[in-house]
Amino acid sequence: MEPALKTRLIGALVLIALAVIIVPMFFSGGSPQTDNGKTLSLALPASPDQELTTRTMSVAPPASSAMPAAASTAAGGDQLATVDIPSRAPQDVHPENDQRPAPMPVQNPPATPPQQSAPTPPAATPPATKPAPKPTAPAPTSAPGQAANGAYTVSLGAYSDTANARSLVERVRKLGYGVKTDKVTIAGKPGARISAGPFSTRAAAETARLRLKQAIPGAPASVVASAHDQSGDAPASALPAGRAGGWAVQIGAYSHQADATALRDKLRKAGFDGYVDDVRSGGRTLWRVRVGPQTQRADAEKIRGDLKSKLKLAGVVVTVP
């Protein structure tokens, strides 16, 4: 038997003996007794004369495993049977299989001197040409008094019979309205178109139309808007004290609305209350530029003087609405 194994067996026996001796000391009553009152002997039996045989069990996987175990049996009685168990640890990678190529040093290409390009000759500059003059739009022309005030009349129709025309004129005059007669041609024969007025406001023209329609049922009556030129200032009698309205200064009347709007903006930038309104005159529409309105005629005259001194613009005093 090997000395190491014998030493282990002896140590185990000593521990068992100590346990048998010391453990009963913790209990009182002396030595344990059997049921018959006999004292048991605690003496250890003598060791057998024959030698002990130790066997080592194989822990290798079954025969079907990929790693078979090689067992060797004991040739003699005092030798142990041993089993060789191959290690399952992964084998080390062979260094020849893990050789990585060393990085190749990067060689910079030799610097080439920059090529000098031949200087380009300066481009010939064309001779300076004078810019063509831009066409300038003709300045809008208008007179301050052109279509200064709107006028309304009541049309009573056209008549080819002279007697009927004269009778209608007399009846209109008896009602206190002014009458205007225009010569026209009806079916190749001379005739007359009769209208009552003029009236300064549409409201006054509508009132006259209703009255004429009631007094002369057979006459067709309709309100017609028109405008007349005013070359000078409106007199103070043009707006009686008992009639609603005011006074304004008209700068001009234009056939294009854009021209009227441009002048209005110029007036506003200069601090004047400019505005634009339209009126029908001679079968076309005119846009009038005015400043105001004012309740007193004297205030309108003062504005006209300021326009003349600041903006060099002439105007006429007209009545509104």
UniProtKB/TrEMBL annotation:
Entry GO terms, CC: cell division site; cell septum
Keyword Transmembrane: yes
Keywords for the protein's UniProt record, in alphabetical order: Cell cycle, Cell division, Membrane, Transmembrane, Transmembrane helix
Gene Ontology molecular function, alphabetical: peptidoglycan binding
Keyword Transmembrane in annotation: yes
Stretches for region Disordered: 88-146
Protein name: Cell division septation protein DedD
GO biological process, one term: cytokinetic process
Highest rank taxon of the organism: Bacteria
Transmembrane stretches, start-end: 9-27
All residue ranges annotated as the SPOR domain in the record: 146-226, 241-320
Family annotation (Pfam families): SPOR
Pro residues biased stretches: 102-113, 119-138
